[in-house]
From TrEMBL:
This protein's name: ATP synthase complex subunit 8
Main location as per UniProt: mitochondrion
An annotated Gene Ontology molecular function: proton transmembrane transporter activity
Family according to the record: Belongs to the ATPase protein 8 family.
Subcellular localization(s) per the UniProt record: Mitochondrion membrane
Species per Swiss-Prot/TrEMBL record: Layahima valida
Subunit and interaction comment: F-type ATPases have 2 components, CF(1) - the catalytic core - and CF(0) - the membrane proton channel.
GO biological process, one term: proton motive force-driven ATP synthesis
Entry keyword set: CF(0), Hydrogen ion transport, Ion transport, Membrane, Mitochondrion, Transmembrane, Transmembrane helix, Transport
Length: 52
């Protein structure tokens, strides 16, 4: 079985790295997350009232 030269290993590494980055970016941008409702994101001030 012939051995691969170091340059071929480097090109193979670059190829898979580009594939990984491409799929990661696609996975990030393909989903649309709806914005949260304002009711859940509000901070309730009454519950933060400290009684010392």
């Amino acid at each position: 079985m012939p051995q691969m030269s170091p340059l071929s290993w480097w090109m193979l590494f670059i190829y898979f790295l580009i594939l990984l980055l491409t799929f990661s970016v696609m996975n990030y941008y393909i989903f649309f997350y709806p914005p949260q409702k304002s009711e859940t994101s509000e901070i309730k001030i009454k519950s933060m009232n400290w009684k010392w």
